[in-house]
């Protein structure tokens, strides 16, 4: 099981021939030790600090620790928290912190600074707490140092805190510890009673009292999580598994107590405490798996958390979280930055609105036009006058729409709950029938009848049933996690298994959602020269050019001409007009001119993901209908649909039309799986039977999704469906098995033949079988 | 049977010590970062600085 911390190298990142000495990525031909300049710098930094032993121990996936080509300057000074003794503290979420060696590297690299007092990273929460003596501005330098090592950092946000702060989880672990202690010590006494057939009655009575002394407090304390949940189930008027557990445990404990007082032959404290321990173990496992998924999502969101540059009256800027911006304030939007707020610009702007409308080509907005939050600035930096604060803006309106759609989805009932709806009343009816049978029909004393009735409750206590589904969930969620799929909702697997129709978004889902250089007849040295200029810019097209030639060195004396391009000596890279060519129609073109040589044009396009046709084929093989639903124009959508092998497509669908299409499918009795990444997909994602979003999706889409595919591409989606279906089949087997067990054991209990020994054997063996069966769920 | 009078309290006391130890570990947040603690122990280089929680 994944939760038992098994150390397994994901990929050997050790320094071997052909692998980058820092990040472990495969080297391109001609590269000596490092895959890029960033890695070379990082390696020099690590060895310079005397921390080179990191490389012998690192077990990260190859390429994780590659510093980004152009380090984004993250101003962290506003997030440093001053402490009363004049020092500062900063909490960061660190992405790429995947092994113990990384934790060590991060802590030691910061501790090497003379003014840093302490640095402590948590591997499970990916949280780093650093304190230093001195001023707040040091925060930015410390963050930059981590970025140079290849770790991506972001301020620790309230969302991360919600995901990790786990008071309820801690209470469950405590209850489990107490229940385990109690059951083992009661067993110590019980085994003596079971085997001690020659035991005197007084000794047995004494041992029963001892068992009661340990058992009663344990049942009362360790069972609290169940009692509380059962109480709310009673108030909601809906029987739940927890109600059955609570009744069974409490009735058994009380019956055993009265048997102890009146010196009866058997007490069942061992059964009650062992039952609690087993159930709590299942619950702790279930929670741990889901907590990890939640945390990873929170980490993804923190990395794209809204930080904006507020323009101060004196012309300087300061970095602040987006929530602190009020309507009317002015922000500086850098090239390539995503707009976080609705606003208007005083100048003409070129925006890529793919995330809000699904258009794949950037569009020019005239001065004064309303600019939608979520669009990406493809042109020069501009000043945005904010028209609505974050909580009143269009993104917040979309989030409210999501909430409503989510509530509608909340009606889905998990298979375990469906089983318990009729199981619990039946079990209680049988118990009541047993009492009536013994007391009314057979005429025995009411104490005997009660003991037998409670035995029925104990035997039917859904120990195996309560473990049946969570155990499968833990194993399946762990298996998906290792394949890079995060499961964020408790019933997501069940819904994924039953999906019968896949609706795919185009931009960013089937395609990469970012410009890629179309290979043309450009000469290699020209490309290299242009890429070395491009290294100086954060513009998306420049970045795309750099990706096509990643090892180009930074050109000297690069000067940025706002809104036009870059200049270095006689070389120019920028818009076609900047290089003396007619402007391009779609804005997806860069021109390069070196002195008097004729200009060279680089064209870019959004490319189909490599694994998209394979993923579509995989979905079809699983029996799902596949369709493409995009807000883009007809031609682009039809081309992508043909390339990816999608038979059915719809173009020009806005956010509302997408949600309507999903609703229509549901009304027709289909169970749609929606896959999308944009803000315009969020409502459809929330309305669908089950939803997934690819890596790099907008934060709104990721929160609306049940599954987040962490690796690039859609390849893991068919595998995830296969695992979900297998997990569902095993969960059903488990439920069926525990029901069969009950059918065999309940008649014994009704007949009054169940001794504490038999109860213990039945309970332990059925739970073991269910858990062992669940372990198969991880295989594809 | 007299041995029971001694052995049962002794065993219970030892078990209780274990429980108290567990609760103390839980309270002092030693269960917060199980993955980190598992690998941290493998680094035997002396830390440059105390890194308290």
From TrEMBL, chain A:
Leader sequence residues: none
Localization per Swiss-Prot or TrEMBL: Cell membrane
CDD domains reported for this sequence: HMA (cd00371)
Transmembrane segments: 172-195, 207-227, 239-256, 268-285, 422-442, 448-481, 735-751, 757-775
The organism's place on the tree of life at top rank: Bacteria
Membrane topology: Multi-pass membrane protein
One GO process term, biological-process aspect: copper ion homeostasis
InterPro entries attached to this UniProt entry: ATPase_P-typ_cyto_dom_N, ATPase_P-typ_P_site, ATPase_P-typ_TM_dom_sf, ATPase_P-typ_transduc_dom_A_sf, ATPase_P-type_domA, HAD-like_sf, HAD_sf, Heavy-metal-associated_CS
Gene3D superfamilies with a match to the protein in the record: 3.30.70.100, Calcium-transporting ATPase, cytoplasmic domain N (3.40.1110.10), Calcium-transporting ATPase, cytoplasmic transduction domain A (2.70.150.10), Calcium-transporting ATPase, transmembrane domain (1.20.1110.10), HAD superfamily/HAD-like (3.40.50.1000)
MF terms in GO: ATP binding; ATP hydrolysis activity; copper ion binding; P-type divalent copper transporter activity
Cellular compartments per GO CC: plasma membrane
Keywords: ATP-binding, Cell membrane, Ion transport, Magnesium, Membrane, Metal-binding, Nucleotide-binding, Phosphoprotein, Translocase, Transmembrane, Transmembrane helix, Transport
Primary residence: membrane
Domain HMA: 88-154
UniProt keyword tRNA processing present: no
NCBIfam families: ATPase-IB1_Cu, ATPase-IB2_Cd, ATPase-IB_hvy, ATPase_P-type
Family from the record: Belongs to the cation transport ATPase (P-type) (TC 3.A.3) family. Type IB subfamily.
Protein name: Cu2+-exporting ATPase
Automatic annotation (TrEMBL), chain B:
Cytoplasm among keywords: no
Transmembrane feature ranges: 6-26
UniProt cross-references to InterPro entries, sorted A to Z: Cyt_oxidase_maturation_cbb3
Keywords: Membrane, Transmembrane, Transmembrane helix
Pfam families: FixS (PF03597)
Keyword Transit peptide tagged: no
Protein name as it appears in the record: Cbb3-type cytochrome oxidase maturation protein
Organism of provenance: Neoroseomonas alkaliterrae
